[in-house]
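for the writeup, i need someone to sanity check this before i put it in the appendix. the sequnce is what the collaborator sent (i think, or maybe the updated version? ugh). structure was predicted straight from it, no edits. if anything looks off just tell me and ill rerun, i have time this weekend
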Amino acid sequence: MIQVSMFRSQGDITGFEISGHAESGPYGHDLVCAAVSAVSFGAVNAVISLCGFEPDVEQGGEGGYLKITLPEDLDEFVHSKAQTLLEGMQVSLETIEQEYDQYMKISQR
C-alpha cells in the first residue's frame, strides 16, 4: 500500500512523504503507482520550475519513497505559489485515493 503523509503547519503544507508500493498490478504495469508517481514528481518539478527554488528532496534508491520539505525562509509570494501547486497535488492524489483506496491512504500530520 502507498502511504502519503502531508505535513502541515498552521494550515500550510510544509512537505510530504510518500512510501510503499500499491501492488495493484504486475511490476511495470501498476497504474496506481504510476499515477501517484506522475502527480507527485510533476508537482515537485512545477515547484522547482515555477517557484524558483529546490525543496529538500529525499528518494529511495529503488523507488517507493519520496520525501519533500519546503524551506522555512520563503518570501510570501513564492510561498503562496508553492502552496497552490502542492494543494493541487493533494487534490489529485485524493482523486486517485477515492477510486483506489485499497491501494493508497493519505494522512495529514
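The mean pLDDT is 95. The longest strand covers residues 2-9.
thx in advance!!
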